[in-house]
Batch of 2 targets.
Target 1
Amino acid sequence: MSTDNTKQENKAGTGEVRIRVRDLKKTFGDLEVLKSISMEVHEGEVVVVIGPSGSGKSTFLRCLNRLENADSGVVEIDGTDINARGVNLNKVRENIGMVFQHFNLFNNLNVLDNMTLAPVQLSKCSKPEAADRAGKLLERVGLADKAGSYPHQLSGGQKQRVAIARALCMQPKIMLFDEPTSALDPEMVGEVLQVMKDLAADGMTMVVVTHEMGFAREVADRVVFMDGGYIVEEGTPEEVLLHPSEPRTIDFLNKVL
Amino acid sequence: MLRIITDYGGLLLVAMGRTLLLALLGLFFACIIGLIFGIMSVVHNRPCNIIAQVFVDAIRGVPMIVLAFFVYFGVPYLFNTIIGGFSVTLTALQAGTICLALNCGAYMSEIIRAGIQSVDIGQMEAARSLGLTYAMAMRRIILPQAIRTMIPSIINQFIITLKDTSILSVIGFPELVNTAKNVQANTFMSFQTWAIVGVMYLIVITILSRSAKRMERRLNVDR
């Protein structure tokens, strides 16, 4: 366990910066959701964001691919400020996969078309190439036999695994997960977390908003605790989850663990 | 009754054909108008939203018979006499098509707006997160799903539009009602004439709504 952590810290420290966030602020009407967020995510790093509901962690994640427009501050993806005028947001998003709490599979398309639509439409590859890639990804998430199924024919866990595979089909450099297991029946959480663990082991750069403390402890290079629109505490899983120093972190962990 | 069918049956059938032609032309342009204004009312662009809303409110707030007189008599008068220097004439079919297209288009735009908004916002977010443009997402993901929920309302609107063609008898287009008025004037058999006309509408509309039901069921197989 301790050698494992050292390895992860090294990896986290040396990779180039993929995501850089500086003084990010976001309000919804009168509600200040993000007050001042600054952080960096390095190549191959797995950052797990935890915190009570309403702490702004989902909003933060959605600012990283500009599903939410920040009020001020800088979000740089591979050096590109995505809030800048004239930035090609669609190009930026091609490199950032996102997995949602409610899966959001395209209900009118079968599994294969869900996965190949974006790469083919955006001329990333030809239809057969995309289908080939999708087939391999489906195999990887254990759903090789579901290519022709429609979303309503799948269980929650299967839907979420397809959603992950769909995002991977664009061959993104970064993956964002917005509470990917929160809408699942308990017995299906494991299969989705396993896919995410495999992805982390393959060196994917990941930002994961979750309530799965076990996953955070096991997979995260860094855990970030958010509350009230601020990052209250961050560090290795050991530091934040086992030896938290901030009273708010201690309070939160006492409630969830 | 029989005499009307034998003597005027052919005439009434031809008139029914004209009714259908007018309805189809009107519906065709109404679909285009409805799609344009429907999308304009959901895009994140304030001027577009306002234009769409004003259009819908204006058309909904005016009875179609007034619209028909306005388009058929008012618009040519505006160009030829008030402004002057033009010689605009509209045939009854042209004016009728414009009226139906505007009227039905306004309602279609509301149906399409509601249909698009009924699709879960997550579908659009997922599409955009993959790098698809708004237009691609709309065409490939949102509209195909929206159309399913819209179909019953669209068919209802089609039926209303088909019946509304009868209002255009006032501008002299020889559709079914206008023709039937002449038949009645010639024969004085008003009961028989209007009974036959009523049954003719009934048959066409029943066929329309039955086949629509079938189509609806077929579209829902992969639900």
Target 2
Amino acid sequence: MSGDPLAGFRETGLSPRPAFIQRVDGWARRLAPGMFICLVVLFLSAPTGLPAVTALLPSFVLASVFFWSVWMPQAMPPPGVFMLGLLLDLIGFSPPGVSALTLLLLHGAAMRFRFSFMRMSFAALWIVFAFCALCACLFQWFVTSALSLSILPLSPSLFETLLAAGLYPPLAAGSIHVCRWLSGQDPKGRQRPAEYVPDQRY
Amino acid sequence: MIRLSIQNRQALEKLVLPLTILVAIATILLGQADRKLADKGRMLFADLMTPFRSLTAQPGMVLSDAGQQLRGAVRLAGENAALRAENEKLRGWYDVALSLAQENQTLKHNLHWMPDPAPSFVTGRVVADAGGVYGHAVLIGAGPSSGIRLGNIALAADGFAGRVTEVGEHSARVLLIDDVASRIPVTMEKSGTSAIMTGDRSPTPRLMYYPQDHYPAEGERVVTGGQISLLPAGLPVGTVHYLRPGQPVVVPYAHLDHIRILRIFNFGTTTIEPPDAPGRIPYIPSPRTGPSLRAGMPPGPFAPAGGG
């Protein structure tokens, strides 16, 4: 018998209305990744003296949005992705909405193929992400060039792609633990037994 | 809360992504249609974030300061020796500078030199590195109340860094010279060649539009040219370097990735407003010129009334 006393209800799609504190807990779990990314972006946009930090910001958000869209899409809803993109645009003084659109398309692609992505090995997923990041950066380059009516240099976009691809493995290694913790699994990926274990004798 | 059936809820969830994409496209179009609104929104955000950023900047600075101190401690002996050698060299230069300044003053006095008006300036801390993939700008935690105006010149400790392009209530945005939108007229100090310095988001802005028979020379100093308003001539920018034949770039003196403090100068209008004059040489009648010489001339605006 599984440890979850509500498993029977969940299978039928019925569940009792969660208590207030449970709802707050659920919301906090869902908002945590987005808020964390937001805080990191705000912190890195302050002058910290780190090298290439301005190029790091879009790459970091790109990798994070992809990771969370694949592994825990409920923590990365489209409005949240939009707000993250808008934040990047406001901070980076780029045309408003361009990063938001790019991130939303990346999020859409990751969501669409999420089940095949989840079955892949880490290296394969990394290559897929590098390809997606390249597409996203080229798309952003194209839109920004079109909006400014001039051909912008391509090298910053390629640099951003490389940075995102390089950033993905350490980011994924860190985030997978957070993801398991947020979704109530133990560090090895097994479902953690519920707090309430009914007495087996009755 | 409205309770929806599972089917309805799933249908709504599927609609969220396309709707958000539409909102993003609408944002792009709105930003293009009304650039002033977009600029206002950005500066409002920057203003709102300024206090928060000053807070977050503190730990970052403490960290990087600690790192610098650590690095300094490791290389203490070597750095000391280098500093001592540099100090000696600078002492020599100090004497040279003193005598040159004295000579300069004497020459200016002898020539009845008209001194340039002294510029007013404010110094501000950089609160945010507002850079993106293509843009590179910094935000200064000082606004119009401290005297910062649109078009003011920002100098880092070592040289020219950028220009003020937007001013909010408590913050101002300085477009740095490596931004893709930055175009600065410059002059090479030795060869006298004029060129336009174009940012391309690399650490070394490119030199463009120099005369084809008068190339910038490798290693010469680049200073600002006085061709545009609000930017005086002669501010140090960097040195010329050839990445490959035919592609000169400027290696800026200012460390554009590590700008902490900027001085914002208000030079006022530095271009001289020409007096109203038509595009021809005025005719000044001389007492010796006879009327026969002026017979074929059309009556210009400067012809004396009733003359001819």
